[in-house]
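Quiz preparation item.
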């Protein structure tokens, strides 16, 4: 044995121990924190131009309410506790100035438009009850108000068209419990174990069959979590048309497929054993199958997205800047999120994108379900925007903003974290090419886009609203539906109207239709509407005349009237429709932005229906009209409760006017048919329930503008693609090997 061998082995062991110790120490060392550039999030208050579109501040709302209380000369009751016979403020929102004034101001040649509010008031305590709309200004110190009701709607708005206040819903519910239910105490106790607290009501809308009706089906559910899936088979029709609630009456009662004059008749039939009783198993408070509580414990953490060098966008007041994009945002109390003055590379491409309406039309063999046509704008898409949960509703590191609104109250309310803005790596290339012919190279661009999001919870449904800005100059408007399905009690031929999703629960068939207003200004205010498509033509092969070739060719058409530009849902529409500018790109083509719709809409309500005109916007997947200040919206919140004599009928907007070289608006309807199924229990998923549209540059630029993105990657086979100066992705181990600075989790939704 070599005497040196033990020493060699000892030295070798020491070296190995030293190396292992270094490795363990390096593994235990905490990575550096990522850079955290301060986010530009400031409260409204600066005089930046985007503030011309800004929502009202809580202070401005206070001033408007105070002004109305002091200057209308009538008592105003707080809407949260008002009776139908009271006067009250329904809502206060910003009055967006006329476009011409705004453009003059933004262009630097005009004064800042007066800042004003739009106040909607219910006057129930007067000889001629009505709804009146006032413009109040100037803010922040109001000095005038003017009645704009007749100017906007061509006449007074009858009082029966008013939206139901929260207080009226409570009053109807109390009437059912204390007056209607008093006539069937035995039935309720023995069939439902009714104790005064274990049922809740959902009200169908619209409320009747003709103008002036205010009769609501109150559908009874078990009072548990996810009650929408727990119908008990009882529905009560309440006539609450009288302004005197002591005059309200029960018009009809429905139970398990049979109709009764009132609860007294139902009680009598039950006591005499003349009805078929279907007892529903009492659900626990958590709803059991309808509970959203996870059925599995937490495990490995899901992937997270973070910004290793801080956010690459800024938010100041109501203004967002991201790379070449800039825009102003706001939140209408009725219609939700909206954008103004959208610019790319400093040039305005869109003046306004806004949601107009979200419609759901239901089918059922129960009265409440079969008569439901919810127009969610009337309930308040903006009002019911819900607080976002960090890390689930939006990425954890997104920028979150509060929203303020005043509706059905004399004081403003705050929805915390109602909007989020974030840059999102979609995990796929925006464009790429790998070459192994002639030369070897790779070129690509990560598809990183900016997303502005809000989520509105309207009863059972949750709508995820997105506006997405891509690096190639495209904009996407997208909505995803989730939440609970609405259900009916399963009886008789119920399976004609949906699928059975639990023992007594019928998931009822329904359609979703979403309408948007898109005021494109492509290369200026004046645009024309162009249609490009394809057709096959037969041609002789020039080099072999005896042979024929079927070749696609480009077809072109100018759509020069509103009638030509109104495309009904089942009609064929050119696949390339775009707003064309009066200027051309380098290659001699009219610069344009194309409208591309993503939709799986169900059938529209037959036009013979007495209420169809109120939702006539839904006839069309696309309709382009001249922009008019007196046609600001495709519908009205008052259409919900009087669809038979609609306050605004979109069909009247289309009157064959010329739309060549005019200021144009695109009204886009997208939607999907939903036939609920067992996988909608407990909750509908967003996968497959996503619809919307894209605005894509079409010959607007001389080449793809994303070629100038700093995120581009290019290297050849002859380069050292592991070097940072050649390939920025190679720098990730250095630049992105950091720990994100996640703030503590908080939630203010309750």
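Solution:
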């Amino acid at each position: 044995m070599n005497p040196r061998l033990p020493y060699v082995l000892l030295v070798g062991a020491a070296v190995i121990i030293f190396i292992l110790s270094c490795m363990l120490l390096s593994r235990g060392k905490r990575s550096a924190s990522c850079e955290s550039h301060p986010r530009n999030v400031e409260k409204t208050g600066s005089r930046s131009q985007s503030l011309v579109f800004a929502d009202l501040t809580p202070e401005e709302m206070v001033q408007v309410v105070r002004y109305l209380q002091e200057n209308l000369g009538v008592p105003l009751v707080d809407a949260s506790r008002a009776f139908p016979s009271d006067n009250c403020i329904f809502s206060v929102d910003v009055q967006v100035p006329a476009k011409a004034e705004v453009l003059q101001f933004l262009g630097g040649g005009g004064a800042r438009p007066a800042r004003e509010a739009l106040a909607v008031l219910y006057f129930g305590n007067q000889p001629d009850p009505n709804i009146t709309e006032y413009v109040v200004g100037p803010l922040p110190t109001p000095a005038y108000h003017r009645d704009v009701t007749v100017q906007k709607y061509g006449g007074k708005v009858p009082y029966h068209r008013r939206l139901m206040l929260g207080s009226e819903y409570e009053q109807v519910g109390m009437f059912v419990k204390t007056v209607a239910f008093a006539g069937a105490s035995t039935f309720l106790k023995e069939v439902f174990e009714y104790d005064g607290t274990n049922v809740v009501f959902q009200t169908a809308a619209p409320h009747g069959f003709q103008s002036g009706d205010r009769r609501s089906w109150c559908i009874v559910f078990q009072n548990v979590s996810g009650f929408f899936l727990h119908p008990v088979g009882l529905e009560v029709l309440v006539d609450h048309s009288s302004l005197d609630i002591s005059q309200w009456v029960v018009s009809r009662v429905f139970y398990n497929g049979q109709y009764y004059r009132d609860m007294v008749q139902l009680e009598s039939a039950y006591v005499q054993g003349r009805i078929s009783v279907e007892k529903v198993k009492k659900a626990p408070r958590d709803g059991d199958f309808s509970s959203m509580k996870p059925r599995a414990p937490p495990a490995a953490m899901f992937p997270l997205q973070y910004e290793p060098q801080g956010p690459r966008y800024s938010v100041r007041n109501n203004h967002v800047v991201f790379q070449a994009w800039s825009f102003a945002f706001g939140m209408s109390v009725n219609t939700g999120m909206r954008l103004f003055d959208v610019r790319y590379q400093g040039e305005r491409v869109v003046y306004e994108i806004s949601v107009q309406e979200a419609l759901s039309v239901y089918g059922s063999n129960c009265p409440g379900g079969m008569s439901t046509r919810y127009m969610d704008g009337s309930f308040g898409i903006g009002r019911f925007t819900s607080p976002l949960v960090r890390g689930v509703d939006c990425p954890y590191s997104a920028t979150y903003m509060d929203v303020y609104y005043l509706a059905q109250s004399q004081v403003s309310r705050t929805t915390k974290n109602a909007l989020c803005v974030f840059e999102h790596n979609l995990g796929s290339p925006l464009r790429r090419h790998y070459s192994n012919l002639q030369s070897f190279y790779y070129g690509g661009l990560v598809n990183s886009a900016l997303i502005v999001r809000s989520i509105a919870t309207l009863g059972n449904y949750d709508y995820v609203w997105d506006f997405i800005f891509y690096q190639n100059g495209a904009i996407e408007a997208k909505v995803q539906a989730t939440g609970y399905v609405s259900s009916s009690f399963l009886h008789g031929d119920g399976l004609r109207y949906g699928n059975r999703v639990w023992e007594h629960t019928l998931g009822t068939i329904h359609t979703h239709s979403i309408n948007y207003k898109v005021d494109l200004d492509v290369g200026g205010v004046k645009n024309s509407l162009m249609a490009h498509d394809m057709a096959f033509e037969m041609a002789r092969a020039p080099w072999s005349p005896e042979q024929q070739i079927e070749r696609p060719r480009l077809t072109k058409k100018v759509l020069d009237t509103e009638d030509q530009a109104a495309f009904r849902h089942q009609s064929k529409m050119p696949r390339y429709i775009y707003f064309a500018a009066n200027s051309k790109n380098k290659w001699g083509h009219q610069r344009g932005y194309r409208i591309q719709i993503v939709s799986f809409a169900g059938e529209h309500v037959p036009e013979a229906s007495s209420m169809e005109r109120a939702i006539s916007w839904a006839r069309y997947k696309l309709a382009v009209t001249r922009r008019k200040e007196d046609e600001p919206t495709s519908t009205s919140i008052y259409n919900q409760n009087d669809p038979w004599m609609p306050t605004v009928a979109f069909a009247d907007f289309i009157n064959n006017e010329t739309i060549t070289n005019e200021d144009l608006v695109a009204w886009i309807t997208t939607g999907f048919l939903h036939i609920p199924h067992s996988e909608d229990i407990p909750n509908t998923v967003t996968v497959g329930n996503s619809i919307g549209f894209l605005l894509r540059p079409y010959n607007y630029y001389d080449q793809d503008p994303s070629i100038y993105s700093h995120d581009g990657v290019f290297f050849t086979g002859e380069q050292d693609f592991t070097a940072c100066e050649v390939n920025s992705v190679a720098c990730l181990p250095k630049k992105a090997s950091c720990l994100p600075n996640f703030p503590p989790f908080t939630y203010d939704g309750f």
